Amino acid sequence: MFEHLQNKLSEALHILKGENIITETNIASSLKEIGRALVDADVNYKIVKNFIQKVKEKSIGKKVLNSLNPKQLITKIVYDELVSLMGEKNREINLSKSPSIVLICGLQGSGKTSFSSKLAFFLRKKNKFPLLVAADIHRPAAINQLELIAEKVNIPVFSLKESKNVIEIVEKSIFYAYKNNKNVIIIDTAGRLAINEIMMEEIKKIYQYSKPDEVLFVVDAMTGQDAINTAQSFSKILNFDGIVITKLDGDSRGGVAITISSIVSRPIKFISNGEKIEDLEVFHPDRIANRILGMGDIVSLVEKVQEQFDEKRTKKIYHKISKNRFNFNDLLEQIQKIKKIGNIKNIISMIPGIDRYFSFYGNQKDSFKKIEAIIHSMTPYERNNPKILTDIKRKKRISKGSGITLSHIDLFLKQFHDMNKMMKKIHAHSGKKIVKDFIYQMINKEKNV
């Protein structure tokens, strides 16, 4: 996400020349290009105009310190304004009661049902006991969709398929939650093609009866400025607490995430940037501003890594590396864990500067597909004994089984052995350092294979 805007802003800031004082003359071209980049990213023109004016006022006349250059100074000012525009700080959802009730609302097709499941999965990782409530009585497939997604990760769903009374469903779900010790109730409500009287009347009834602790309005990033208009209209009727932006991994240019909070006067609380149930992030304006400006987001990356890598297993892997016993089964296991962190494109956006070396084209759903195909084409004995893969007959068989060219097989094997050598050298480092280096090696491997 934000790749297009990041590239444009980088080009705009690159124009700045090394002078001691920022003047209206030497900043003019950069500000013009920054404005164009934001408009191109689907940011409202009036907001862009105000944004540029603020950056200009805070920049002109500033003396550039010897340790900085004009680009670094303006980048800091642009960063501060982006953070301010996106809400300044993270606002957590209110889960102070037990059970806490979270009401999910939005238009049809915005991704409410998928988000409800993702939120339940996210909260369970935070040691909560969520219950999903299928309160969409209008869309026939809504209940089945919710049950199908939740079943895969063993999250309970409450539904009354025979009932068309949404208040009855909510009432019985709350009783069920108390009885079964569920401390978060997530109510997935019906959406409409547009905000209308019927939709609003139903959601108001649910709101009045359930008295939710948190109301989240879900918007589709792909709809651009329409998402902001919808949120504005909805906020006049129902006082929701926060915004969720879905489909940020699509073709959207990110303008919704940058501007919706300031226009609607509600904080963005979550963003969804993938199809997998783990593809959900808490929205941190400062971290997103870092990503937009190409400065990465190491804090979010570390949080994601910590969710998937346990210290005991890391020590075992390190021990195998130090004894030269790290094999393809171990590599496959680590790949599966890295994939769970999230989309590789998103991971790369969190590592400052690394995007300069990698380019991703098309719809790349599985960045490790080739590596996995190679390993799955090996025999169990070959996976456990990497050194025997010098035999050309074995490599040809693996090439045929995986559909990967022989030259790529050779490259993969070389990189595997190089990685082993590199990781052996860092035996004095901590487990976290090993994980960090491992991720970098995996990204390098994907680029070349």
Protein described:
The structure is a single chain. The chain is an alpha/beta fold. The protein folds into three domains: 83 residues, SRP54, nucleotide-binding domain (Four Helix Bundle (Hemerythrin (Met), subunit A), Up-down Bundle); 194 residues, P-loop containing nucleotide triphosphate hydrolases (Rossmann fold); 149 residues, Signal recognition particle, SRP54 subunit, M-domain (434 Repressor (Amino-terminal Domain), Orthogonal Bundle). The protein contains 20 helices and eight strands. The chain has an eight-stranded mixed beta sheet, with helices on both faces. Helix 5 runs parallel beside helix 6. The chain starts with a helix and ends with a helix. The C terminus is likely disordered.
Binned, the helix content reads 55-70%
CATH architecture of the largest domain: 3-Layer(aba) Sandwich
Percent strand: 5-15%
CATH homologous superfamily of the largest domain, by name?
Answer: P-loop containing nucleotide triphosphate hydrolases
Order of helices and strands: HHHHEHEHEHEHEHEHEEHHHHHHHHHH
Overall residue-averaged pLDDT value: 80
Major beta sheet summary? 8 strands, mixed
CATH topology of the largest domain, by name, is Rossmann fold
Number of strands: 8
Strand order in the sheet with the most strands? 3-2-4-1-5-6-7-8
What structural class should be given to the helix and strand makeup?
Answer: alpha/beta
Distance, first to last CA: 24 Å
Which residues form runs of ≥5 with pLDDT under 50? 353-366, 427-436, 438-449
Number of helices: 20
The CATH first-level class of the largest domain comes to: Alpha Beta
**Shape annotation:** flat
What's the Cα radius of gyration? Answer: 25 Å
